[in-house]
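Explain this record to help learners:
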Amino acid sequence: MGFPDINTLEPLAEALGVSVLELMNSEKIETEDIQCEDATLILKNTIQEANSQRLLNKKQYKMIIIGIAILFLLISVLLIFVLTRGRYVTLIQCEDFTKRERVESILSREGIPYKILSDDLTVTVLDAHCSNANMTLGANNIRCAAYITDNDFQAEIKLKDDIIACFNEIKNANVNIYTLPNGENSISILLELKTDLSEEKIEYLVAAVSGATGSKNADNIVIVDTDGNVLYSKDS
């Protein structure tokens, strides 16, 4: 039960028709019975009770603040978990179970996490592994959903991002895709390198680009670096 503010005692006592001491002592006191010691004791007890009530209110206020802080922390942790947890994106929609099994075999071999949707033909991968999966399937002559588009510009941007994500040696890439009259793609890639690419990685890159873009072979692919070195071309 809360104790009234000391500033309200006098008007409250007046409204109730009792003295302040009687109000504080919670009982009727005959005038002749009021002693100085009694008044002092009543006042002291009243002040102590008021102080106790203030301390209790302060503790309750602190508990409320702590509770709100804990709740905010829990909500923040949950929000971070929801925003950062892996989400699966479509990698490829297979035409049949044979192709799906081949895709699964490649992904399993490379340790890339994947899931099969309820249609049993759509393969999805964790977003963080999507670039690696695109390049890996491309190197195995399998074209992924990200590159099945009539918009060359979109394919260029996606291919650029995937190349940079998959090769630590590559700082930046400029990709140009041209559709030739015969329907084949002519692809030129300019690489800004951090360190040299090994022959093995260049071969992997060429195979990945060829498969990702749906090229029948690598004859129309040219890869050079910003120093003017031809890393790959048909005649090299």
Observations:
- The domain at 86-148 is CATH 3.30.70.1530 (Alpha-Beta Plaits).
